[in-house]
Write a structure and sequence with these properties.
Structural class: mainly alpha
Number of helices: 3
Shape: elongated
Order of helices and strands: HHH
Strand content: under 5%
Largest sheet: none
Number of strands: 0
Distance between the termini: 61 Å
Length: 118
C-alpha cells in the first residue's frame, strides 16, 4: 500500500513539474517576444524587427525533449518495483535539472550570438 502511495506522489510530482515547466516556458517566451517587438518598433534606425528567437525554435525542441523525458519516466513508474521506481524518479529529476540548465545556457549564448552580428 505504501509503495502505491509513493508511486502516486512521484507520478503527481512529475506531472506537476512537466506542467509547470511548460507553462513557465510559454509565459517567458511570450514576454520575451513582446519585449523584443516593442524594442524593435522603438528603434527607427533598423529596417527590420526581430522578435522571435531561440525560444521559439531550438528552445521549443529542447522543451519538448524534456517533456518527452518526463513522459517516459511516468510510463516506467508503472512497470517496476518500488526500489526501481524511486531510482527512475530521482534520475528523472536530475536529468530534467541538467537539461533545463543546459537550455538556459544555450539560450543565453544564442542572445550574444544573435546581437553580435547586429
Amino acid at each position: 500500500m505504501v509503495s502505491l502511495e509513493k508511486r502516486d506522489v512521484w507520478r503527481e510530482s512529475l506531472s506537476a513539474m512537466k506542467a509547470s515547466l511548460e507553462s513557465t516556458y510559454e509565459f517567458k517566451t511570450v514576454v520575451h517576444e513582446e519585449a523584443r517587438l516593442i524594442q524593435g518598433l522603438k528603434d527607427v534606425k533598423k529596417d527590420y524587427v526581430i522578435f522571435s528567437s531561440y525560444r521559439r525554435n531550438a528552445g521549443k525542441r529542447r522543451m519538448n525533449d524534456i517533456k518527452s523525458l518526463i513522459d517516459t519516466a511516468l510510463e516506467k513508474l508503472n512497470c517496476c518495483d518500488s526500489k526501481e521506481a524511486s531510482l527512475i524518479y530521482l534520475e528523472t529529476l536530475k536529468t530534467v535539472m541538467m537539461q533545463t540548465r543546459w537550455a538556459s545556457v544555450l539560450e543565453t549564448l544564442s542572445e550574444y550570438d544573435h546581437t553580435y552580428g547586429s
